[in-house]
Amino acid sequence: MVSDSGRVPVFLKNREKLLKLSVRDLIDLRAKEIPDLPFFLTPANPFPINFQQLKDQCSRISLGLEASGVEEGQTVATMMPNGLASTLLNLSIFYKGKTLCPLNLAAGDMQLSYVLEHSESRLLLVASELRARAEAILKALPNPPEMVEIAADEIPFENSGNQWESENQTDASDTGLLMYTSGTTGKPKGVMLSYRNLISGGLNAMESHDLKPEDRALCVLPLYHINGLINTMMGPLVSGSSVFMPPKFKTSEFWGWILEHRCTWFSVVPTLLSALLHKTELSGEQKEVMKEYFRFGRSASAPLAPEIHIQFEQKYGVPIIETMGLTETSSPILSNPLPPGKMKYGSPGIAWGNEVRIVDKQLNTLKADQEGEIAVRGSNVMKGYFKNSEATEETLVDGWLLTGDLGTMDADGYVFVKGRTKELIIKGGENIAPREIDEALYEHPDVVDAAAFAVEEPHYGQEVEACVSLTSHSSCNSEELKEFCRPRLGDFKTPRKIHILEELPKGPSGKIQRLRLAEMTRSLS
Hints:
By secondary structure, the protein is α/β, with parallel strands linked by helices. It is 32% helix and 25% strand. Helix 5 packs across helix 6, helix 7 packs across helix 8 and helix 10 crosses helix 12.
């Protein structure tokens, strides 16, 4: 593709050369190569910001950040919904050579207070509608950061001047992102990702999905989650393509956004695919229009049940590419190939841009189809956990990151995730992967969300239970669901109890929080 200026964009085939750049270098390079190509648009800002304008805005916003008194290399926290301001602020913080710490808006105030203190953030950029909440959080801190209010739909620091110049060069190995994990098993851990990690994650998204300048992502996942930040912000930046970003996911507007803004792909999580499957429709005419430009949907952050996967593709006529990524690996590590490549339902695919192995407890590589822990090595793997050397040493071993996920790898290199090491159900000495139970429940046409989990039981040690949410018209009850599971799972694995909830608890990315379910359902027993 040739830009309006007549220059052909150079997408560096030398991966190592690109990985030596900082995000500032990359933005400057894109502005030089493809200045007139669109990069970013929102409902509030329908005229795209191109790559030259992106560089100019990042340069100018850096003046505003500099005026705050925060020195280069220090941490800036953000408390922002998706949109114009959050995208420009995130990239400007990288551009300025600071460390971004995006606060998870779905977390509780006590957790956010902990993150602000632990991260040593010296500046907090807050959306206007979140000011009152932020002030309440800051009151609990002995040494709170300075707070600056930002309008979510406006360009930040508009009166900061024109251009920012700095003699200090940001190194690709410097920490660009400090993102805290959800903390379901304790206090959240701060994952340190370098600029090299961030660009590597964007590269993995570009290469696995063959992103080109004519592509446009629909970003409906929050930028304070690694999936949204890397795949649908860094992926377009690295590939020279564009992104349309509404403030949040809306089932009723999802397909309209794709049709109106000619988005060629999207990234969601399985729970959002399930919601779209059960609550939206596309006309035959709309499907025909989308065939002209729409390429694929992307699923990540949690295993995708094959039943949901197949039903979605059949209903809407669009391919869904299952993938896998982690915060600690700057998101994508595995992806199924695009059509006409070989896709395997129930697998997040093969390794892209990094090495993936299945290892035993002694870190020996296992043979095909043997179950063990999924381990990753590559330029996308984190520097470590901030101020937590013990957790870093447990997770990073001999250059490999131990994910905590159990899985197998077949002879073709496709990984199949069996569950989390901490989520395994051990009944009578036998390991039961919760996902096996989930998938049996998802075969029932009325089940929207499903998650199995362990409960303590004196005879077996642990017993299997599950929670489901059902379609609004369903009259199905727990006993019927158990009988539905029995021929699929056998008596031993069929849940002892199935709790029907209006909605299952989910994290900011839409992933079901399995470990909360046992505690939630005690009062229902």
